[in-house]
Design a protein that fits this description.
InterPro entries: MPP/UQCRC_Complex, Peptidase_M16_C. The protein is α+β, with helices and mostly antiparallel strands and 415 residues long. It contains 16 helices and 13 strands. It folds into 2 domains: 214 residues, 2-Layer Sandwich (Cytochrome Bc1 Complex, Chain A, domain 1); 173 residues, Cytochrome Bc1 Complex, Chain A, domain 1, CATH 3.30.830.10. α1 crosses α8, α11 runs antiparallel to α12 and α12 packs across α16.
Length: 415
């Protein structure tokens, strides 16, 4: 059932006795800007590790442990051009625990969200400094992985200068030092007052009890009830190219293709099928023809960002054969555009996606993630397995024909 607790504050209750743990997901969404990702990531870390009542990470963890190991985490993510701060909570359902863990969990969520370790309009200084240092180290650590480095450099090359999408959802290490306890507290107030809020509950608690509990949280109405998610930038006339040289044993070839954003659920699932046929599965053309048959890549796969109008390809190659691999990638796309794949290949790809979708129904986190995405996109509830099964060969060909190469990044091992 769906409820509007206030303007821009929504609750969905999914009643189920299937899982031993009840799950809560609270999503705060706002359009990403060039400056808000880093502060919101630091904010998430501050909320997760301390409150006024439980001022240290140890004190907070001890209290949660007393509640049969209730877990509360706060992190960031991005959907299209929306930046999201997400609180997730899991706890034993009341029938198994034989105590009122649901209301205890909601009380702890209220403490985390509405009673942070802050006074006089700013976060606690020592706690802020510690979490800022940790965040810088975490972000810098991401880039130690050369595969991650190459993927990020491709996105820097693809997204146009000044585009908010150049900024990762986790922020930038160099921006952390510009933040203060007061500026992040202002970001916190803005999030609580202005972000669209979607609350999802999955578990075995009476629906009215769930509604009453979340109605009691001090959320107020806000104007951000519907937000622009899709991001589609103007295409380049010429493919953007960049080569960097590092002492790596394996070169990283990354390619970006633009395609239309997915405006409805059928287009979304057709694009998923195309991606799995192209490079997203062990049955894909990139995997079978470039890695297995030609032995020109240590790995070769594609990733679809359906709400960004972007498909990226990652391949581990030898520097001397990188150009040949890039050419073969284009040839695999042309083959799909010309319908050069069998009905059996299409069936195998769809079967794999259907199995993934159905297995996701056994994972509480997957169920909540799908429901949240549908709510933000205003998609009606649907059976994804049926929509995948309905995808035709002609539909896949038509999606393939919309792709245009936009950027190529090579992290070369030659110096």
């Amino acid at each position: 059932m769906h409820y509007r607790l206030a303007d821009g504050v929504n609750l969905e209750v999914i009643s189920s006795s299937k899982f031993k743990l009840n799950q809560i997901l609270i999503n705060f969404a706002t359009p990403q800007t060039v400056s808000n990702a880093t502060s919101r990531h630091l904010l998430a870390n501050l909320l997760e590790t301390s409150t006024n009542k439980y001022p240290t990470q140890t004190a907070l963890a001890t209290q949660l442990a007393k509640q049969y190991g209730t877990d509360i985490s706060v992190g960031v993510s991005r959907l299209g051009q929306l930046h999201c701060v997400r609180l997730k909570a899991s706890f034993v359902n009341d029938q198994l625990a034989q105590t009122d863990l649901f209301n205890q969990a909601v009380t702890m969520i209220k403490e985390v969200l509405f009673n942070p370790l802050a006074t006089a309009g700013q976060f606690d200084g020592p706690t802020f400094d510690r979490q800022a240092t940790n965040l810088k180290a975490t972000i810098k650590g991401y880039y130690d992985d050369k595969q991650f480095w190459a993927a990020r450099r491709l996105l820097d090359l693809y997204y146009q200068d000044g585009a908010v999408m150049q900024v990762p959802s986790f922020g930038r290490a160099q921006e952390v030092d510009q933040l203060t306890p007061a500026s992040v507290y202002q970001a916190y107030q803005d999030m609580l007052s202005n972000d669209r809020v979607d609350i999802l509950f999955l578990g075995d608690t009476a629906e009215q009890v769930v509604k009453d509990a979340f109605t009691s949280l001090p959320f107020t109405g806000r104007t951000r009830t519907s937000l622009p998610i899709m991001y589609q930038q103007a295409g380049y006339r010429q493919v953007q190219r960049q080569v960097d040289y590092r002492p790596v044993s394996q070169a990283k070839l990354n390619v970006a293709y633009q395609l239309p954003t997915c405006q409805d659920k059928q287009q979304y699932y057709t694009s998923l099928v195309f991606n799995d046929l192209f490079g997203g599965s062990p049955y894909s053309k990139l995997y079978l023809n470039i890695r297995e048959k030609a032995s020109l890549a240590y790995y070769a796969s594609s990733r679809l960002l359906p709400f960004n109008g972007l498909l990226t390809i990652q391949a581990g190659v030898n520097s001397v054969t990188a150009h040949r691999v890039e050419k073969m990638i284009g040839e695999q796309l042309v083959a799909i555009q010309q319908g050069q794949f069998t009905d059996d290949q299409l069936t195998e790809v769809k079967r794999g996606l259907i199995n993934q979708y159905r297995s996701g129904n056994d994972l509480a986190g997957s169920i909540l993630g799908r429901r949240l995405t549908n709510r933000l996109l205003n998609f009606p509830d649907h059976d994804g397995a049926e929509l995948i099964a309905a995808v035709t060969k002609d539909q896949v060909v038509q999606v393939a024909k919309t792709l245009t190469k936009q950027a190529v990044y090579l992290l070369s091992g030659e110096i």
